[in-house]
Amino acid sequence: MSDAPLLEVRRLRAGYGQVNVLNDIDLSVGTGEVVVVLGANGAGKSTLMSAMSGLIPHSGQILVDGSTVGNPRPDQMLARGISLVPQGRGTLTALDVTDNLRVGGTGLGSKKDVDEEIDRWFGIFPRLAERADQIAGTLSGGEQQMLAIARALMSRPRLLLCDEISLGLAPLIVQELFGTLRRVSADSGTALLLVEQNAELALDIASRVYLLEVGSVASSGTADSFRENNNIRQAYLGY
């Protein structure tokens, strides 16, 4: 059995056009692990997620289970068990809740498998069950984020990439979402890589943390070590 991380990036560089945003990023996520990437606006967090999920080209290496995957497309990363919840929720706004989930479960095989998985996520997100026939674009922001997470999990991924899922949401909704992700990871063994500005909640569920500053990893360590670092605590936790 391989000891290689589920996902690893080595000397990753990526950007947009001639503008380089990421500079030699090294990062890894193990099977079942919860890893958080913290950083201010403009640090390169979303660019990192886009590169790892195949949305933008990169240089350096992306490895899954120890094997280099080159410049993969998003569907190729999904086939390897890596699913993305993009910033801005990314629901299919013209479809109802059930059909959004059905699209997420396209690769499961039989209709029976898809229906069972939909029922599972309706049980975890009862608010979605109550709105099963409602058009996604008419849901509240929190409900759309629940739907985006559930849709990404419909494929039964080994690793879920979450890009700023707390952005623009009420604190109680954010706490609910983070609590659900913690339970899902613990119950199913799904690894999580969270890019977040909400450091307090992210550190509550993280095992390891990376701090991104101006496109580079400025620090990394356990969640406890970040909480004990005065400079990081004052900058990101506010105390």
TrEMBL record:
PROSITE patterns per record: ABC_TRANSPORTER_1, ABC_TRANSPORTER_2
Domain ABC transporter as annotated: residue spans: 7-239
GO biological process: L-amino acid transport
Keyword tRNA processing recorded: no
InterPro entries: AAA+_ATPase, ABC_transporter-like_ATP-bd, ABC_transporter-like_CS, BCAA_Transport_ATP-bd_LivF, P-loop_NTPase
CDD domains listed in its UniProt record: ABC_TM1139_LivF_branched
Similarity-based family: Belongs to the ABC transporter superfamily.
Name under which the protein is recorded: ABC transporter ATP-binding protein
